[in-house]
């Protein structure tokens, strides 16, 4: 049996790193006129990557704690809907922002209590809340998009801080993404609470026997996911300047895929923050590069899906190779 | 000072219509390893679960250090310094050794951030005290042998100064060599002034290490003998006949 160290990058994630590098090199050389590394594309990636990235960080940490959240795809449009409507009622921008974050926290708390107190598998519980909130937001908005500009002039402080640029080029979304990543990295890997997340996901009975409140650990993880969803939703709404009822659709599963590609286990206790980051970057770069290569845009999911399965197979092979 | 660290007096327990414990007296001395042996269904786990707070006795009293105590929850037992080590429930397999030793009690110097140096050094020291040769506290527990895993779980109770450690079938599913290693750990605990209750099916293991033997059968105590007053053959005949010493 090989001696395996619990290091920041598990072998699985370092394997993903190799694929990530190969993809970057491949797309840099083979996209027409090397558009992949062109400044326009890099700028666009800098704005796009944080969207799924921020969600994946939360979902990945929750998976390490041993649970799923399918409802992110509904927390995102609910937050966006609340944000624009509060502005429409002339609530001051900063209060609107804070209240929107509270909505995400509240929805996360509901998920957490539902999963912990009922003991229903989290996949089912959050599938339920996903459909419930989706129904609520569809009915409330009648599926009509709402433009942001009717209620918010361009150039507000919040907008400049969340979605502005540094030096007219570096998107602040990406800076926020980095800040959140670093905070969560410290939280997960060198804070007590991070250890509680790992042991709760790995062996709940052991964690309980050692006096860790595993219910609290899981609820906090759900609250984190809800908070990150509403934060990202505000950023996205400011960027696309409107609410759409289908905002964030598909993010639930894509975030899980990102975490898994980054070496996170589906059964809890295994994963790392750098791994989750790498997984998100890999999936987003795969999508972006394929589009630049001229893959049909509406069929792009077929490629991403195939890519995820290939990743999973490679991970299994790598695991077998390692333990042989 | 009290004569015993733990005295359980006239313990009765019913589960519905099943009379699981029929007035058992059970004592553990200071610096003593007590082998608690008996067949399946003899009442060993029920007795121990009452002591560790997972069950509550229907009748009977428990004294700890000479004082009457009321153990209602596992937390109450832990507060007294009674720790139970279950093989499957003790460790998180994908997490490192040091993070397992300090699970739930991570040392911190600043705002809850883990003092990793202290955690690594201290877990390495306590493992060395136990006689476990492990060089890297960052290894994940999954890579350890069964005996070494028991060692990690025992290191935890040693480090956090338990007074009485209950080991529930610690040698089950272990190789001969690993079982010997686990019994060395028990000796180490005793030499650190910690009393041990060693629950086992394996009378050979129990005989090798225990200072005293308590044999349970069908919810009653069959025998309570010191090692120097008995022999392996006598213990085996007691267990297989299911009759107490006076009856034999």
Shape of chain B: globular
The chain-level mean pLDDT of chain A equals 90
* Order of secondary-structure elements of chain B: EEEHEEHEHHEEHHEHEHEEH
The major β-sheet of chain B equals: 6 strands, mixed
CATH architecture of chain B: 3-Layer(aba) Sandwich
- CATH architectural name of chain A: Orthogonal Bundle
CATH superfamily of chain B: P-loop containing nucleotide triphosphate hydrolases
How many helices of chain A? The count is 13
| Strand runs of chain B, count | 12
| CATH T-level fold name of chain A | ABC transporter involved in vitamin B12 uptake, BtuC
Helix coverage percent of residues of chain B?
A: 25-40%
SSE string of chain A, helix = H, strand = E? HHHHHEHEEHHHHEHHH
Overall pLDDT of chain B: 89
Query: What radius of gyration of chain B results from the CA coordinates?
Result: 19 Å
Overall tally of structural domains of chain B: 1
* First and last CA, distance of chain A: 8 Å
Instruction: State the secondary-structure class of chain A.
Output: mainly alpha
pLDDT < 50 stretches of chain B: none
Strand order of the largest sheet of chain B: 6-9-10-3-11-12
In terms of DSSP E residues, the strand content of chain B is 25-35%
């Amino acid at each position: 049996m090989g001696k395996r160290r619990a290091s920041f990058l598990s072998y699985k994630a370092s394997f993903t790193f190799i694929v990530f590098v190969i993809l970057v090199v491949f797309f840099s050389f083979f996209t027409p006129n090397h558009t992949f590394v062109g400044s326009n594309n890099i700028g666009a990636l800098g704005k796009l990557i944080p969207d799924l990235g921020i969600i994946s960080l939360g979902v990945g940490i929750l998976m390490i704690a041993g649970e799923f959240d399918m409802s992110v795809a509904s927390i995102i449009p609910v937050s966006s809907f609340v944000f624009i409507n509060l502005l429409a009622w002339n609530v001051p921008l900063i209060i609107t922002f804070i209240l929107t974050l509270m909505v995400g926290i509240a929805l996360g708390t509901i998920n957490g209590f539902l999963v912990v107190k009922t003991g229903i598998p989290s996949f089912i519980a959050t599938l339920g809340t996903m459909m419930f909130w989706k129904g609520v937001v569809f009915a409330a908005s009648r599926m009509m998009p709402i433009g942001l500009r009717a209620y918010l002039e361009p150039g507000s402080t919040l907008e400049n801080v969340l979605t502005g640029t540094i030096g007219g080029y570096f998107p602040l979304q990406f800076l926020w993404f980095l800040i959140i990543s670093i905070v969560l990295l410290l939280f997960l890997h060198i804070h007590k609470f991070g250890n509680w997340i790992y042991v709760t996901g790995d062996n709940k009975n052991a964690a309980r026997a050692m006096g860790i409140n595993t219910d609290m650990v899981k609820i906090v993880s759900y609250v984190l996911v809800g908070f990150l969803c509403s934060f990202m939703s505000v950023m996205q709404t400011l960027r696309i300047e409107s609410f759409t009822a289908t905002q964030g659709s598909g993010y639930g599963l894509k975030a899980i895929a990102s975490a898994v590609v980054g070496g996170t286990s589906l059964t809890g206790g295994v994963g790392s923050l750098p791994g989750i980051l790498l997984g998100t970057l890999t999936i987003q770069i795969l999508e972006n590069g394929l589009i630049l290569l001229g893959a049909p845009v509406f069929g792009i999911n077929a490629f991403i899906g195939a890519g995820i399965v290939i990743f999973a197979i490679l991970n299994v092979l790598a695991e077998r190779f390692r333990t042989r | 000072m009290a004569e015993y660290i733990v005295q359980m007096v006239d313990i009765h327990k019913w589960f519905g219509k099943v009379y699981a414990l029929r007035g058992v007296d059970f004592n553990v001395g200071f610096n003593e390893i007590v082998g608690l042996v008996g067949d399946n269904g003899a009442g060993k786990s029920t007795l121990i679960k009452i002591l560790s707070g997972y069950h509550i006795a229907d009748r009977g009293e428990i004294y700890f250090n000479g004082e009457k105590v009321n153990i209602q929850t596992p937390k109450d037992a832990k507060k007294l310094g009674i720790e139970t080590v279950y093989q499957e429930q003790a460790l998180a397999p994908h997490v490192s050794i040091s993070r397992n030793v300090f699970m739930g009690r991570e040392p911190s110097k600043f705002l809850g951030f883990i003092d990793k140096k202290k955690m690594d050094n201290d877990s390495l020291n306590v493992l060395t005290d136990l006689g476990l040769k492990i060089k890297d506290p960052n290894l994940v527990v999954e890579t350890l042998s069964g005996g070494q895993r028991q060692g990690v779980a025992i290191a935890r109770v040693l480090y956090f100064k338990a007074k009485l450690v209950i080991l529930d079938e610690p040698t089950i599913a272990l190789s001969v060599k690993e079982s010997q290693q686990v019994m060395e750990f028990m000796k180490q605990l005793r030499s650190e002034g910690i009393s041990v209750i060693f629950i086992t099916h394996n009378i050979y293991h129990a005989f090798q290490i225990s200072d005293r033997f308590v044999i349970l059968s069908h919810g009653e105590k069959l025998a309570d003998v010191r090692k120097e007053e008995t022999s392996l053959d006598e213990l085996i005949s007691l267990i297989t006949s299911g009759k107490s010493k006076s009856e034999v």
